[in-house]
Amino acid sequence: MSQRARTLAIDIGGTGLKALVLDHAGAPLTDRAREETPKPSTPTAVLEVLDRVVAPLGAFDRVSVGFPGVVVDGVTHSAPNLGAEWKGFPLVDTLKRRFAKPVRALNDAGVQGFGIVRGKGTELVLTLGTGMGFALFVDGRYVPNLELAHHPFRKGKTYEEYIGAKALEEVGKKAWNRRVERVIAQIQPVFNPTTVYLGGGNAKKLKIDLPANVKIADNVAGLLGGIALWRDP
Question: Using one digit for the tens of pLDDT, what is the confidence trace for 80-111?
Fold first, then answer.
């Protein structure tokens, strides 16, 4: 494929479906298009809305997809914030047929990480959205499918149950901020990260004083990182 290939970057989220087209170097060629994720979020319903998101973006040569769950060999193994119908769904093959283009897919926190990590030491990405995404990078290398979100954290709740969107709605912004602070304090001595990046739509609601190694990431990184999926043949 030409080194000038245009990449359609797609971010499938529990709240929104987003897409834009990137040039060969990963710079945006279009504005970001977005629509709400349909409810229920079945594969059929999501792909129909995705068609509308992609339609105005113009030509592209290949596709990168960030997906909110475990993806192995192009097949989705879990998607707690979308629904059980996604278990075992052949996402990559389905999109290849739909777009008639080559497709690669990865967990969405991993894609976002590729858009922001510096490639030095241990770097973590936590996405605060409908749920909680997590990605680990070691010297720029992504460690796939670590689902910290579903690990027990505190008082019988998983990390995702503790700081996901439902928790924010239930306890309010002030208490939710304190919860995020506790999560950050918990993961620091476990991973000893060089940097922790906080992304996702709810990261902008954080009002706490962050440790020096914790940064708020621009949410568009979830799309810009899509170019990294095509760095290797």
Answer: 999 999 999 999 999 999 999 999 999 999 99
Take residue 192 and report the two structure tokens written for it: 């000893």
Tell me whether the CATH fold assigned to 7-111+223-230 matches the one assigned to 118-217: yes
- The rounded distance, in Å, linking the Cα atoms of 67 and 78 is 10
DSSP characters for 20-81? Answer: EEE-TTS-BSSPPEEEEPPSS--HHHHHHHHHHHHGGG---SEEEEEESS-EETTEE---TT
Q: How high is the pLDDT of residue 2?
A: 57
**Assigned token pair, 183:** 């999560």
Q: Is 126 helix (H, G, I), strand (E, B) or coil?
A: strand
Domain range list for the chain: 7-111+223-230, 118-217
Give, in words, the CATH class of 7-111+223-230. alpha beta
The long-range contacts involving 25-32, CB below 8 angstroms and separated by at least 24 positions, are 25/227, 26/224, 26/226, 26/227, 26/228, 28/220, 28/223, 28/224, 30/57, 30/58, 32/220, 32/223
| pLDDT tens profile 128-145 | 999 999 999 999 999 998
Helix (H) or strand (E) holding 106: strand 103-107
Q: What tokens appear for 10 in the block?
A: 């797609």
* Short-list 45, 59, 57, CA closest to 18: 57
Tell me what percent of the residues of the chain surpass a pLDDT of 90. 94
Classify domain 118-217 at the CATH topology level. Nucleotidyltransferase; domain 5 (3.30.420)
